[in-house]
Write a structure and sequence with these properties.
Elements lengths: L4 H31 L18 H10 L3 H8 L10 H4 L4 H16 L5 E4 L2 H8 L7 E5 L9 H14 L5 E8 L3 H5 L5 E7 L4 E9 L4 E2 L8 E2 L5 H6 L9 E5 L13 H8 L2 E5 L4 H7 L1 E2 L9 H8 L3 H9 L25 H18 L2 H13 L2 E2 L1 H6 L4 H6 L3 H14 L1 H13 L16 H4 L1 E3 L5 E3 L62 H8 L8 H14 L17 H24 L3 H18 L6 H9 L12 H13 L14 H4 L9 H9 L4 H14 L22 H15 L8 H10 L3 H8 E3 L11 E3 L21
Length: 814
Amino acid sequence: VRVPPRRAASARYETTIFALFLLAIASSLLLTSASRPPRAVTGILSGGGRLASRGAASWMRAASGSSSARALADGAVAHGELLPAELVARVPHREKLVLSFVLAFLEANALPAQLLVNGGYVRDLLLGSVPDDLDLSLCLRECDPAVTVATVMHGLPGFALERPELNVSSVTITTILSDASKDKNVDTAKAHLVVGSPPERIEVDFMPTIGEETYDEFNRVPERDVRGTPEQDALRRDLTIGAMLLHVFQPRGSGPSGGGGAAAPEAAAEALQWRLLDFYGGLADLQRRVLRSPYPAGADASLVRASVLRYAEERELARKMGLLPSDGAAGSPARSDSPAPAGAAGEGAEALQVVWWIKVLRDDPLRVLRALRFSAKLGFQLHSSFWLAVPFALSSLQSKVAGSRKKDELVKIARAGREPLLTFLDLSFGFPLPNATCGGGGLPCLAPALFGGADPKGVAQFLSPAIVTPPEGANLSPSSASPSSASPPPFLHHSELPPSCELLLPSPVDPAGLPPLGAPPPFSSAAMRAAAAKLPQAVPEEEALGAALAAAIYSCRLAPPAPPPPPGARSAADALAAGAADAAMCEVLAACDGLSASNEMRQSAHTPLWCVKALLDTPPQLGMFELLATAASRGDGGQRRVGGREFGELLHMWQSLKLASLFAPDGAWCGVGGAARRTPGYLPDFILELAGTRCERPTLLRLREQLQLLQRDGPPISGEALGALPSLPPHLRGTMIACLHVLCRIEGAIAPLSDKASLRSFLEEHALLDALDAEWYVDAGEGKEKGCKGRELRPQYEQAVNRPKPKKKGKKAE
């Protein structure tokens, strides 16, 4: 059939449009299927743990509809191109004024320097959030050698005074150079600029574009070439999503120096041009939600490997992990979980990715912790080459990085939110490293290397690897496990797993790309999350960090099998749970000492475990408890509400959890969020749920019922009212006030006991005044020294029954 030429052209055009439409649908389906979690990977973390939560996945879905995500998907943002207007609009105006001011200074002094915005500022802007922490780089490559960042900084304060129309009223320079940094030619400074009207203070970091960096074995501060190119500066970053730069410049003829009145600086700030420099595929990794290090795609893999793997033990470890052929000749790994960026191809790209990340992590081992932080915070998947590179940095991570620096990173994770913190702990405690038979640095997971360091006295203290070491004969192929095989370790009895613990992977993962991993550590993510679900959102970051760390350590294998409990004591499971809490206390104190943790973090990690042990131990029984339990039944027709043992347990909980601090002065319950006198770590609901991850189910139910009773409103009780008991031994005053609080909550009494008359009437009504006196004292007898009114105190009351304070244990045995 002959078709007229015009109609044939139309048909070809329609066919082309239809084909493009089908291609778009297919691409969308492929992206959707790739974003679904492969169920095979869900068994990697023991105890049902995953890499990110449903909350993180929903956040990513919401972010995908933002203007930034649309710009990335549409290709409106690309290397060497100007940012679209909708992204530039997210930059705060006051920071545009700062950039315009610096550009005006460079122009006024005829300095041919490039002004670059770097680091997380670019990442956050492209992710659609409001950026902060403005970090600037100056490319001084074309400037006179005498021009440095320091000389530029010294000129800014005077320039602000000369040019007040630029809306920068003052500049204060604070140098941040240590002696070691000065010796190694590090040229960086921090500036505080007062900008705009009304004036606002902005902190900005300045540094040059860095070329080649050389690290030594004992110092994290490198030797640096401060005349590097932007591309070289990007290569030294630890992650591609943080290696992107923004070249900021004024369009020709629109600078603030050309007059125009007071509005000219404002207009110049808004007219700034922002060109994206993405040399290493950061944009693609943002779209795929993958974390990896930049690497020199055009370099020779064998030469890079030879420069990175310098020592025989490193090369031997590389052979065992499959990164080198067994004969030691040049070779490359055969694993990768994502395609290499444009310009890289084949085995060379895969080898470079792994070997360069080994260099990145070994040069600055703190980057291991940073990578985990960003993975947890952003919900991004770590590239499989990360797990291949980590074993090479473990020794330096333990010996080279100060514990205080690790603590700073941990606080940043806690500041990011509860879910990122728990995801980070999942990765730290539950994700197995390449098994020890392949090297692995001798550690089953990252937690023993992350939580610890050198304390202020120079003594290194870390978590014990034993608590996360799998038992002998454990499965060494966790990446092939199915979700149904993931179960909590047998020593945990967690219950009532909250729905929020149903986890999923929001980003594409290829199990085949993971290296051969060790057996899953004996850690239950589900138990940790069940306890952490009871952490109030109102607690400060460091308290949340300490409590979550306690929950993570308590969810590991801790106490060896204990002998059967003595008659009358708790069950064997409760005795084991109490012993595990005791062992966990030693671990958290070692970790906090090594991290140089604050008192708030230390107390928040230690106190909940101390309370768990106290609640699971058998409290002492005294005769006065039986008297008070009997008195509680007098107003209820003689029906027994509690027995003496139950009263003693209630008193023990009241004192152990410091519940008095969670009540308002009028006796009303105000809880953790409204308590002004609460000590860090005393979180009743969290402590009970933490105990419930190991103790028997009936024990947990009993503890919950007791706490619910003690949370009732009660009367204010004054210490002055104890004058109604003249024979009360002074050391029992605190115990007696606690007993009165418990008694009133059993009865539901709320009448104030604030003076002697009211308390005396209350005690007489309950027939306690004489009964307590007879319980405390006994006749001295012949030949004995006479005490109060010729009597002596019974032996069981010679010491205070107050809750003892948690005491810091000694150091762990080496």
